[in-house]
UniProtKB/TrEMBL annotation:
Domain of life: Bacteria
InterPro entries xref list: HEPN_Swt1
Family annotation (Pfam families): HEPN_Swt1
Name of the protein in its database record: Swt1 family HEPN domain-containing protein
Length: 195
């Protein structure tokens, strides 16, 4: 039988190690297993059955997917943060247009009822379409006008990025000039909102 003091000491030492390991990681010192190398190996193994050209395209598109993933989710975070700070915990029901709320509710229900894919979130904003994000921002323009130059700029950029996102989601390959335009739009956004 384990003594409760021994268990407590063991848990405490584990917590202390984790705190120290985080300090080392922040300083750029590797602690523990090299998860990055393991991920690269697993990724390469998964792609090995496919041709070199197809793998090359996939890797280039993966970079673009990662950029759009980060961009879209940072917009979601901005919307949540701004509206929660300025309107409290009821921001979703008070500040999101009714049609967007209804869309999210329908998607949540469908995901719950008909899918084996659950995801990791119950956040209703994660169930809205990319284009709805500009609708929410425009509906609450007073809360975002200090960050974004104009509603026209917002709508134009997010509409174009949504088209590119959907193109990528259907596994179509983009041209280098299209990569550059997407990167430029995301960089413009990041500069504008202070990321």
């Amino acid at each position: 039988m384990i003594d409760s003091r021994d268990l407590r000491d063991w848990l405490f030492r584990g917590l202390m190690f984790e705190a120290e390991a985080d300090r080392f990681r922040l300083a750029g010192i590797r602690v523990g297993a090299d998860t990055e190398a393991s991920e690269r190996t697993l990724f390469a193994d998964q792609l090995a059955p496919f041709g070199v050209d197809l793998r090359g395209e996939a890797l280039r598109m993966a970079r673009l997917y990662a950029l759009l993933y980060c961009f879209e989710n940072s917009v979601r975070e901005l919307v949540t943060q701004r509206l929660r700070e300025r309107h409290g915990e009821d921001w979703w029901t008070q500040k999101v247009p009714r049609k967007v709320q209804e869309f999210a509710t329908t998607r949540q229900k469908d995901a719950k009822d008909n899918s084996w894919l659950e995801g990791h979130t119950k956040d209703p904003l994660s169930f809205v379409q990319f284009g709805h994000l500009s609708d929410i921002i425009i509906a609450n323009w007073d809360d975002f006008s200090d960050l974004i130059s104009s509603q026209h700029w917002l709508k134009q950029r997010l509409d174009e990025l949504e088209r590119a996102r959907n193109f990528i989601a259907h596994n179509r390959y983009l041209l280098p000039a299209e990569f550059q335009r997407i990167e430029m739009y995301v960089n413009d956004w990041n500069r504008m909102v202070g990321l």
